[in-house]
């Protein structure tokens, strides 16, 4: 069965401090577009919603715009920017670098629970 949906008409939208998430649900795929504004940091904008010290969502991502710095539980730190495709396991913090929004497309499926109370 072929399914087509537009991210411009998401099934769900979640707003959080300095950002928002738009989600489309298809069979076998939760696809998300996350927009993070300058000043966004997971531990400041989403931590209280999630109820965990670090982001515990697994990400497969593509950065369309902007830059994001990532710090993993083991202390590794990297930066992603436009055109980068990344895999990021649970246990990380992230924040926006610079003064332009960062737009990330996530297709790992874990974003279905992102920025929901207790997730």
UniProtKB/TrEMBL annotation:
Record InterPro entries: Cupin_2, RmlC-like_jellyroll, RmlC_Cupin_sf
Pfam families, per the entry: Cupin_2 (PF07883)
Residue span, Cupin type-2 domain: 60-106
UniProt name for this protein: Cupin type-2 domain-containing protein
Species the sequence originates in: Actinomadura coerulea
């Amino acid at each position: 069965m072929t399914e087509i949906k537009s991210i411009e008409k998401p099934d769900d939208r979640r707003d959080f401090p300095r950002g928002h998430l738009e989600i489309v649900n298809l069979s076998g795929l939760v696809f998300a577009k996350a927009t993070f504004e300058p000043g966004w940091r997971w531990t400041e904008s989403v931590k209280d919603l999630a109820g965990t010290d670090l982001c515990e969502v697994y990400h497969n991502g593509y950065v369309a715009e902007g830059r994001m710095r990532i710090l993993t539980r083991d202390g590794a730190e990297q930066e992603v920017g436009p055109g980068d495709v990344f895999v990021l396991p649970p246990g990380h913090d992230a924040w926006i670098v610079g003064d332009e929004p960062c737009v990330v497309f996530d297709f790992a499926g874990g974003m279905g629970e992102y920025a929901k109370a207790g997730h």
